[in-house]
Design brief:
This protein is an alpha/beta fold and about 475 residues long. The protein has helices at about 20-35, 50-55, 60-75, 90-100, 105-125, 140-150, 155-165, 170-195, 215-225, 265-275, 350-365, 370-390, 405-415, 435-450, 455-460, 470-475; strands at about 10, 15-20, 200-205, 230-235, 280-285, 290-300, 305-310, 325-335, 400. A five-stranded parallel beta sheet has the order 4-7-3-8-9, with helices on one face. It has a two-stranded antiparallel ribbon with strand order 1-2. The chain starts with 8 loop residues before the first strand and ends in an 11-residue tail after the last helix.
């Protein structure tokens, strides 16, 4: 299909002007799709099926989407003036706009993660060997997939059979043991760094929303405290800007998921001061009032390590000027590899959907925040982690898989049934423009419908799932103190 194009030039990042080549846009979109197994990973009935019917190959779909990008670029009259051509960033923004507007979420995520990874490469924040590409760590995923295959839980069908046959307890125990072993390895790495003379003064536990950072932080520090280490915890929520500095969107939602929601300059200054042995006036933030209400004098003692549990612990501006040798950075993400159905479609379930379910449950049970609003807010969550979390995960000194094969069976009883928390389709009628929310909701609903769930009594009791398991942060009953659930 031919489209009108009057874009002649593009402004590169060094401000040089070069000829606009729409074929480069097409190739970039196609590469993003191919990196996740093709556009079929984004097929959604009632959303983009007409595109798949009209364009039968990945290359032709990429061509259609590239044409949509060209149309969007031509709609800005400034771009038609020779002195104001679109920039590379403008074009990349329009690629994401086109992908998400037509429901190609997974392709957009891969494109966005690659885009910001390249940004951090250019900034010198990550070396080439730490570049995360589309955000999926292939080596780790293949290892996890092999582990799951050995136990027959690499597909939803296989997992369902384990639940039905009453063989879930050994799977719970083995997967938790694997997580605990990874924590042991992390503790050993910290101690090895200290024993070899590294001036280690900061321990970061970072990762996307609802990946299990709090439980992991407690478990890791318990291990290290047994070796005599002492910690000073710094709550980074105290560095949020006041509510008046967080603009709302048309549904009165605020984007707290971006690192810029924090006073990064003050935080960076305080981190440097603490490491220098100085006393700081740490702010105290009141979420009830939406502002900083007080301050507290704190100092990092010579034999203490600064402990930070933070979404954006890998974000370079936060630790600017602080040597890498002074930091140990642990990264946690839900990376359980599970294929839909019997695996024949080749479509994996999404890591982000498990975290969405976890957060929906936590928000409704502990924050009086409806699951509907959590779904509507999730596009902010995803945008933040694709910019400042996942592309930087290669910088971590240790990576822990916070996803477990039993997550979905344990979460299902809270969402399904007459008292379940999952919203109803009619709840979205006032938000017809939120395509992202609609796609996530329908995908999560299909996933939950396909999973054999545990009984709520099984989940609430401790015979099956121990009280210190990561999932207890979300389903409740944790024997570990969870500050954000208090």
């Amino acid at each position: 299909m031919a489209v009108q194009n009057r874009i002649v030039k593009v402004q590169k990042r060094n401000r040089a002007l070069v000829k606009f080549d729409d074929l480069r846009v097409r190739r970039a979109i196609l590469r993003a799709a191919e990196s996740i197994g093709g556009f079929r990973q984004d097929f959604a009935v009632g959303v983009n099926e007409a595109i798949f019917n009209a364009y039968t190959t990945d290359d032709s779909i990429a061509g259609f989407l590239a044409d949509a990008v060209v149309v969007c670029l031509n709609s800005d009259p400034h771009h038609l003036i020779s002195n104001f051509p679109p920039t590379i960033e403008d074009i990349q923004d329009e690629v994401l706009h086109a992908l998400r507007s037509y429901g190609f979420q997974n392709t957009a995520d891969a494109y966005e993660c690659y885009r910001w990874g390249r940004h951090w490469l250019r900034e010198g924040a990550i070396p080439v060997d730490k570049f995360m590409g589309n955000g999926f760590p292939q080596a780790q995923m293949e290892k996890t997939l092999a582990w799951n295959r050995e136990r027959g839980c690499d597909t939803v069908a296989g997992l369902n059979e384990i639940v039905r046959s009453g063989r879930i307890k050994p799977l719970v125990d083995e997967s938790i043991d694997l997580y605990e072993q990874s924590l042991d390895e992390a503790a050993e790495k910290v101690l090895r760094r200290l024993n070899t003379g590294d001036p280690l003064r900061m321990l970061w536990v970072s990762g996307p929303s609802s990946s299990g950072k709090t439980t992991t932080t407690v478990k890791l520090t318990d291990r290290l405290q047994k070796h005599g280490l002492r910690f000073l915890m710094l709550n980074l929520d105290d560095y949020f800007w006041s509510l008046v500095e967080h603009p709302t969107d048309w549904i009165n939602d605020r984007n707290y998921e971006t690192p810029e929601a924090l006073d990064i300059q003050l935080l960076n200054c305080h981190l440097a001061s603490l490491l220098a042995g100085e006393t700081i006036e740490k702010p105290t933030y009141s979420f009830k009032e939406g502002r900083r209400t007080a301050s507290k004098r704190i100092k990092l003692e010579a034999d203490q390590i600064l402990l930070l549990d933070c979404l954006h612990g890998l974000y370079p501006p936060i630790t600017e000027g602080i040597p890498a040798a002074a930091q140990f950075r642990l990264y946690i993400e839900t990376q359980n590899v599970l294929y839909e159905g019997d695996g024949s479609t080749g479509r994996p379930t999404q890591f982000t959907d498990v975290r969405l379910l976890r957060r929906m449950l936590r928000d409704v049970q502990h924050r009086n925040h409806s699951p509907l609003l959590t779904i509507l807010h999730w596009h902010y969550v995803r945008s933040g982690e694709l910019f400042s979390i996942i592309p930087l995960s290669g910088l971590a000194d240790h990576v822990i898989n916070g996803g477990f094969p039993f997550d979905l069976p344990a979460l299902k009883p809270f969402f399904c049934g007459p008292d379940g928390y999952l919203p109803h389709p009619e709840d979205f009628q006032s938000y017809t423009g939120f395509l992202d929310a609609r796609i996530r909701y329908e995908r999560v609903k299909r996933l939950l419908d396909s999973v054999e769930g545990l009984q709520k009594e099984q989940v609430r009791g401790y015979d099956l799932i121990p009280g210190d398991a990561v999932i207890r942060e979300f389903i409740g009953g944790s024997t570990i103190k969870i500050p954000h659930n208090e």
